[in-house]
Amino acid sequence: MRIFTKKLPHPDLPAEEKAQLLQNSEYQEMMVESTFMYLTLDLPTAPLYKDEKEQLIIPQVPLFSILAKFNGATEKEYKTYKENFLKRFQLTKLPPYLIFCIKRFTKNNFFVEKNPTIVNFPITNVDLREYLSEEVQAAHTNTTYDLIANIVHDGKPSEGSYRIHVLHHGTGKWYELQDLQVTDILPQMITLSEAYIQIWKRREEDETKQQGA
User: 123 lies in which domain range?
Assistant: First the structure.
């Protein structure tokens, strides 16, 4: 993965001083190559208002919207105690398996908050070619992934529980595991859950041909 980082001047500085600082090498964009164990997907801030029936709205976001973080163009601001940075990310390689960690929990000095936003995602045929840098796209014949496992968090951050959805490769059926209970589940129901961690498997060439047949 390529990580592009640009340091930002302090927001309270006068415009002229900001402009001068941006000319310094310290504030020029830098790029580093980095490996990753999993990809963290950031959720938009959940709305706090209620609808006209006084019911809390459950926000939803498409998977491809939060994957845009890795398209090489989307910038996000990161703040530290002293400094602010703009960062953008671009994938340079697609491994056989990808792990997505959907960032539902935020911590501060007092408590943990959970973002309940539902991520709308297809179970199969997720193509990640557009998130690769142009010069490495040709080296990747297969860029399509299928979901094989989905970990869900239900309830409050401190009192919630976990469920796991697993694909049985031999039969193509999905099962839900919670503690010692194992039940069948329809693929359509998986997409309605508060997904937290997902595992995706890249299709091999023969699988891709079968899907296209």
Answer: 38-70+92-207
Low-confidence ranges of the chain (pLDDT < 70): 48-56, 205-213
Q: The domain that contains 103 carries what CATH number?
A: 3.90.70.10
Residue 109 lies in a domain: yes
pTM of the shown model: 0.85
**For residue 60, what are the CA distances in angstroms to 10, 151, 176?**
34, 18, 22
CA 161 – CA 154 distance, rounded (Å) = 5
Rg of the chain taking only CA atoms, in angstroms: 20
Domains held by the chain: number: 1
Distances (CA, A) of 105 to 64, 95, 102, 193: 20, 26, 9, 16
